[in-house]
Inverse folding.
């Protein structure tokens, strides 16, 4: 049996008397796009924050490539090759594309200029940023020194996904990547997600856009009341049944899905 790239067992997180996640299981398989769907307040964000190091679960276990890991910050998760693109994009509009790509992991010049004077190797960072954008087919962005605030919503999302793909050696997590985009730009981001997948990087996609989910996902993790309700195959289950499972109108056994 294939071993999950990233898995969680018995993950629980409480905030006082509120249980955001209880005894939750999770599995991301190699090279797949796993969509995570759930109603508002179902606990999707808590699960993703636990997997990306933004919060620490009160109990449970997270494994990466079969080895137990514990993240106390998103920076630590990044060191393990887990990159997250949040809905807010976490980008600095006043900085250039290249500066945003390397924010928090800038490359210093070699020799005394880098080690003592901490001078940044801007040329190398621009070169790598241009290569990464080109690899993912983002050729519409001509000027790597362009400020992010001058880009369209789709282009900003593209830069954020390219940044994650460039440094996410193990897992890329995308939180509502098409939420604020029009049809054309949303389409472009979906193509970008498929391009990242083609490079062998497994993706966790959190989305409310069911047509997008059913178009690109290999499997769908249905999250309800702080737990994994079931995992479905979009080729076997209709969109309306997936929504019924998500909202509680239907139970997994009613459509022959194992909980």
């Amino acid at each position: 049996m294939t071993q999950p790239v990233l898995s969680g067992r018995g993950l629980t997180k409480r905030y006082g008397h509120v249980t955001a996640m209880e005894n939750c299981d999770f599995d991301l398989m190699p090279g797949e796009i796993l969509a995570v769907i759930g109603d508002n307040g179902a606990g999707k964000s808590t699960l993703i924050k636990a997997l990306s190091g933004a919060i620490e679960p009160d109990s449970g276990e997270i494994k990466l490539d079969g080895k137990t890991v514990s993240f106390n910050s998103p920076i630590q998760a990044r060191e393990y090759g887990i990159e997250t693109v949040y809905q807010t994009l976490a980008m600095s509009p006043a900085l250039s594309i290249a500066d945003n790509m390397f924010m928090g992991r800038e490359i210093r010049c070699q020799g005394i200029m880098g080690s003592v004077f901490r001078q940044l190797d801007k040329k190398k960072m621009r070169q790598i940023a241009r290569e990464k954008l080109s690899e993912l087919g983002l050729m519409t962005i001509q000027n790597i020194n362009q400020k992010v605030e001058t880009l369209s919503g789709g282009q900003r999302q593209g830069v954020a996904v390219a940044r994650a793909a460039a440094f996410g050696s193990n897992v890329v997590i995308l939180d509502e990547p098409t939420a604020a985009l029009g049809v054309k730009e949303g389409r472009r981001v979906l193509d970008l997600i498929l391009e990242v997948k083609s490079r062998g990087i497994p993706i966790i996609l959190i989305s409310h856009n069911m047509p997008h989910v059913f178009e690109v996902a290999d499997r769908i993790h249905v999250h309800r009341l702080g737990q994994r309700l079931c995992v479905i195959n979009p080729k076997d289950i209709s969109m309306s049944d997936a929504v019924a499972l998500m909202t509680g109108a239907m139970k997994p056994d009613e459509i022959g899905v194992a909980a």
